[in-house]
Structure formats: structure tokens, C-alpha cells
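Revision sheet: C-alpha cells.
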Amino acid sequence: MALQIDTSILMRVAEGDEVAFKVLFDTYRPNIYTTALRVTNNEWMAEDIVQDTFVKVWIHRQQIPAIANFETWLYVLSKNIALDIIKKKAHYKTYSQEEAKNALLRVYPEADYLTQDKDFKRLLDEAIERLPAKQKETYRLIREQYLKREEAAEILQVSPETVKSNLDQAMKSIRAYCTAHMNDIPLVLLLHFFLKHF
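Predicted:
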């Protein structure tokens, strides 16, 4: 992984500092995503591995000061998550959602998870409705009807590269809209909702 992050950032994460956690996320996300993509050859599965990894980092943040080599620990954690997801590929989405949800409810027992999830779904619907027509149609075919890129391209009569570009833009817009309108929700819950709905 060959990245270095200031020890003070790790200590702040251990104390529950969400700003420091975002620094940690921004520092290590590219390498974890690239490795996950290389292993799975699936962009969305790679995103799930990244998000699952950082949800677990947050949940176990109090253990960070006792970890001798954080980068090695993070690499092993993401590798194990990737292997679990690959083994359970047929059911990986349901598995990771339930695991992450149960872990979150242990950490946030007072959180009204269902209400927040319902609110997030409403925001997600709003974000989708705001998309340009081609991006919206691409999103629905790929993310809601689970078509392959080539199948969506045939229906939309565009190239697979155009489908990828439209979906990337749609996902970026949806994430930006949801993030901008969920300022009060803890970062780890926000990550979980992205994991569940993307």
C-alpha cells in the first residue's frame, strides 16, 4: 500500500473524529479500490469492498492505537472483505447489508435506523428524479434492473462506454445530492446507506 498517514490522524479517528476519518478515507480509498477492482473485475463490487472496509474501520476505531502497522492491518481487512464477498458472490449484497446494519445497530442502539433509512430512500428517489433523462434511464437499467453494461447499451442504442460514462455521472450526482442533504447523519451511517442503495 506504501502510504503514510500522520499518527495524530489515526489517534483522532480512534477518538471518533469524523473529519480525521474523512482524511483517512481519502488517503486510502484509491489503493483499496484499485486492488479490489483488480481482484473482482467489477466496479460496483469494488465500491462495496471499499465502503465495507471503512465501515469496519469506523466500528473498530477504538482498536487503532493498539495496531502496530495500520496500513498492513487495513490491507488485510480489505483483502478479507474482498474474499468474503467473492465467496458469497451470489448473495453478497444482502450479506454485506445485513452485517453492516447489525454492526451499526450495535454501535448506535439509539439510532432510529428505519426512519433514517426511509429518509435516505426518499432522498435517493429525489436525486434520481433530478438526473438528466439519459443518466436516469441508464441508472435504472443498471442499478435497479441489474442489466449488464452491454445489455443496457443495446436497449439505449449507445456504446457500452457511453453507458459507463452516463452511469458514472449519475452516481456522482446522486452521491453529491444525498451527501449535501444529509448533514446531520453520522458519516458511518451515510456510508452504510450508500452501501445498501448503490
